[in-house]
Amino acid sequence: MALVKAIRRFTVRTVLPEPIRPLARLATNLRWSWHRPTRELFASLNPALWEASQHDPIALLGSISREQLQDLANDGEVVERVQHAAADLDRYLSEPRWYQGLGEDAPACIAYFSPEFGITEVLPQYSGGLGILAGDHLKAASDLGVPLIGVGLLYQAGYFKQSLSRDAWQQETYPVLDPDGLPLTLLRHPAKDGAQGKPVHISLPLPNGRELHAHVWRADVGRVPLLLLDSNVPSNDEAARGITDRLYGGGGDHRLQQELLLGMGGVKALRVYQELTGTPAPEVFHTNEGHAGFLGIERIQEAMSDANSPLSWDEALAAGRASTVFTTHTPVPAGIDRFETVQIKHFFEAGLAPAVPTDRILDLGRENFDGGNPSVFNMAVMGLRLAQRANGVAKLHGVVSREMFAGLWPGFDHSEIPITSVTNGVHVPTWVDPRISTLARNQFGAEAEALGRWDLAYNVSDEDVWALRRELRAQLIEDVRRRLRASWKKRGAADAELGWTDSVLDPDVLTIGFARRVPTYKRLTLMLRDPARLKALLLDPKHPIQLVIAGKSHPADDAGKKMIQDLVKFTDDPQVRHRIVFLPNYDIAMARTLFPGCDVWLNNPLRPLEACGTSGMKAAINGSLNLSVLDGWWDEMYDGENGWAIPTANNNASSEERDDIEASALYELLETQVAPRFYGTTVAQGAGAAGPSESSRETVPTHWVSMIKHTLANLGPAVSAERMLHDYVNNLYCPAAVSGRRAVAESFKEAKELAAWTTKVRNAWPEVVVEHVDSVGVSEEPQVGDSLQVNAYVALNNLTPDDVSVEVAFGRAEDTDELEDIVVAELDSLEDLGGGRHLFSGSLVINRSGSFGYTVRVFPKHSALASKAELGLIANA
After folding, report:
1. Is 5's pLDDT higher than 90?
2. Residue 465, SS3?
3. Strands 185-186 and 170-173
4. C-beta of residue 316 within 8 angstroms of C-beta of residue 300
5. What's the longest Cα–Cα distance across the chain?
6. CA 684 to CA 701: how far, in whole Å?
7. What is the reported pLDDT for 15?
8. In whole angstroms, what is the distance from residue 611 CA to residue 666 CA?
């Protein structure tokens, strides 16, 4: 063993011969991570090195000797393939796509801020669903031509690599990444006098006279540039260099400084990038979770410190809100970053935003509502107050979010709270297995594949579908055996002990997958609720099942680590270890075989604590059926033929009772529906514990295959990230761009008017009163279809009828007088009664039999507001 160690290590980029020089550009544009022909090109250059490099084009090129590179450059066929691939990339980057066909309302540029981005395992800057979603968002934007710019942080050690100790306890390691060995380029100022340009330098002041500096790295995600800020620079002191050390690695001041750099530093990086590249200024800012919320403060700082026409706080807030979109991903308050108010004050008094009053910043995040803690600064609350448009990530999550943040809009019905939803999607080219793409191309042609004709799944023969499913299952099993053996060796096992890993799992047994982060609410160990019953399912002589499980627990979450340990100890049992495995270090590379290889994807969170849960979507586009609690996306897309819904217990049940009930329901489904349907009715009675008999392998379970086809045809387009981007563009980005343009036009005329009007309304609102309501036209025996005239006498104080909307809300009246199935109608201003009093009147049609009721409400009204609840002001009768 060599005892001489380097005191410094760095990566030397390969210089390619001219004929194959385009390989460098193909390697640094991350389109290769989802573009199969480009990956196949790299693999063909040296298949052995491609495997050794773990499918990393930059590492591959760095591993090929100069002599081999010259041989490739002398090979006419290779050169032609490289030139063809480069030309294809050029077309992809320049040709008009879907977005370019939209009208003038479409924004010229959109900034998308996220704390993590999961694009490829080669760039490990993600921990779980939030990052994978952000990566898929960028990829789909690229494919559709959406002019997005991503903004994030470059973590020196990414998240962490997971392994297991001998006693099955999760262990974390943090290998340091070398940016020069990643598909990144350092953002630099233009070169001068032949010398290389200086790196772009972003700075933020810190308390005690310190400064936080950062360089900016650029990753090209197809057409989308991704800017990543890196604090590991020589000009920082040691503490500041460690700010971007690891994703979610610290708490307190460390986490706060990461989020200040992401939000405020990210806006500064964008401005420099615009200047260097001529890219249009973003017309929409999308805050993906509260971590990036400080971007709104930096934008307010810009507007208030403008040398030519500085805005007031209220004006700058109105202008910034108009063009900001905020997405919340958490359904539980515990999942939101919260800091002590004094902590925020300490940092901003260091001069982070000198033009902005610190008390105004503190008010943005303050939980000054019923049930809140006024001494706490809530990042999601700030995000909502800084954005005119907000959304959850599934329909059910929208409902949960409106309930969770209802305190910000007191007096409003939960359905009226201005948080909509855009259900997440997954980037199909990234997650669909190449074998499925090949089957589609071979049977229906490249055009059908390119158009995403999911409905053509019905035209594939049952035999071909079933054969493909077995092939994908076998591919997964091969990968599982390799990973399991490596895991056991890290746990200290010798090769002589591991012969059994060569026969783990069976390519003809129903294979169920479960892989995700491991917080307690996702209930990794629900399947262990009755170990004997699970063991019976695994070893059933007629209908056996097998399980492949993976997941990481946060380093500080001992409860999650204990769940992993309990599960792994069960999988270590020699009686069942051939049927159930836990694979450490779940990442994109593992997912690429796991999703296609599983017949069923299991998800059993505590409802409604799953915001969306996109792993089941990735399984579905590969023909896997979902077995899930009706939570997240499954709540809106389950239709009875694309999988199974696990019944949930009453919310009044204790956690123990709930787990018992829902685990029993899971076992029941597996025993009576899922497994029998997979094996069909012709499973040989003599199939033993080793797996179904040979005759059953020739059986095509037609009902199961019909469910696969139905899933592909119906869920395929519904769960795609392209559908998600269409929704964001049409429902959020375009309206936000229109609002933002109006706000800043003519030297911020509308923003200034809106700010002044908002101040006037807030000051007057305490005296706005619905004094009296009467109705005309109700007979002694009202009937459905009768018309009712409602008159409302409203004191508006110093406001005018143009400042308000007065509406009548009517519907079924419960015993508590609460209204259900509400319909609303606006009342017209009929008469000025003097003294600030006005009569509003209108008619409604009684639309139902039974108990009927109505009420009158008053809201602020302005053309620049996105919803009647935006200001959180309401006056009820």
Report:
1. no
2. helix
3. unpaired
4. yes
5. 100
6. 13
7. 86
8. 21
In whole angstroms, give the CA distance from residue 186 to residue 198.
10
What is the per-residue pLDDT across 276-320, written as a single tens digit (0 to 9) for each? 999 999 999 999 999 999 999 999 999 999 988 899 999 999 999
- Give pLDDT tens digits for 382-441: 999 999 999 999 999 999 999 999 999 999 999 999 999 999 999 999 999 999 988 888
Give the model confidence (pLDDT) of 748-770 as tens digits: 999 999 999 999 999 999 999 99
What does each C-alpha distance from 794 to 448, 765, 797, 823, 876 come to in angstroms? 61, 12, 9, 21, 10
Nearest to 152 by CA among 42, 234, 267, 47: 267
Distances (CA, A) of 81 to 31, 72, 75: 17, 11, 10
Q: Which residues contact 438 (CB under 8 A, 6 or more apart)?
A: none
- Whole-number Å distance between alpha carbons of 393 and 327: 7
Give dist(CA 358, CA 364) in Å, integer: 10
How many Å apart are CA 488 and CA 220, to the nearest integer?
Answer: 37
CB 680 within 8 Å of CB 699 = yes
Hey, how many other C-beta atoms are within 10 angstroms of the C-beta on 580? 25
For the residues of 761-811, what is the DSSP string, one character each? HHHHGGG-EEEEEEEE---SS--TT-EEEEEEEEE-TT--GGGEEEEEEEE
Place of tokens 């499913």: 469
Residue 105's identity, in one-letter code, is D
pLDDT score for 3:
61
d(CA 684, CA 778): 72
Cis peptide bond prior to 147, omega within 30° of 0 = no
Question: CB-side exposure of 756: number of CA atoms within 13 Å?
Answer: 6
Residue type, 810: F
Q: How far apart are CA 222 and CA 711, in angstroms?
A: 29
Q: DSSP letter at 13?
A: P
- Strand 148-153 and strand 110-113: the pairing is parallel
Q: Which of 592, 577, 433, 599 is CA-nearest to residue 509?
A: 599
Count of C-beta atoms within a 10 Å radius of residue 694: 10
DSSP assignment of 288-342 equals ESGGGTTHHHHHHHHHHT-SSSPPPHHHHHHHHHHTEEEE---SSGGGS-EEEHH
Q: How many CA atoms does the CB half-sphere of 744 hold within 13 Å?
A: 20
What's the burial of 159, exposed, middle or buried (CB within 10 Å: 0-12/13-18/19+)? buried
Give the Cα separation of 278 and 108 in Å (integer). Answer: 12
Length of the chain: 877
pTM, full prediction: 0.94
| 500 vs 575: CA distance, rounded Å | 12
- Map residue 677 onto helix, strand or coil: helix
Q: What's the distance, CA 103 to chain centroid?
A: 27
Close Cβ partners of 873 (under 8 Å, ≥ 6 residues apart): 761, 762, 765, 859, 860
**Start-to-end C-alpha separation, the chain:** 84
Q: Which of 261-275, 683-697, 777-791, 833-847 has the lowest mean pLDDT?
A: 683-697
Q: From its phi and psi, is residue 837 left (phi > 0), alpha (psi between -120 and 50) or beta?
A: beta
Q: For Cα atoms 148, 301, 248, give the angle at the middle one, nearest 5 degrees.
A: 60
> Is 595 in contact with 619 (CB distance < 8 Å)?
yes
Is residue 851 over pLDDT 80? Answer: yes
Cβ proximity of 768 and 858 under 8 Å: yes
Q: Which residues does residue 808 pair with via DSSP β-bridges, in sequence order?
A: 825, 856
Q: Which residues of 398-410 are buried (b: 16+ CB within 10 A; e: fewer)?
A: bbbbbebbbebbe
**For the residues 832-849, what does the mean pLDDT come to?**
91
Alpha-carbon span 505 to 571, nearest angstrom? 12
What secondary structure letter does DSSP report for 433? -
The helix/strand/coil state of 672 is helix
Q: Provide the sign of the torsion angle of the four alpha carbons 851, 857, 863, 865, taken in this order.
A: negative
Is the pLDDT reported for residue 642 higher than 50?
yes
Q: What one-letter code names the amino acid at 823?
A: V
- Tokens read off for 90: 């050029």
- For all residues of the chain together, what is the average pLDDT? 93
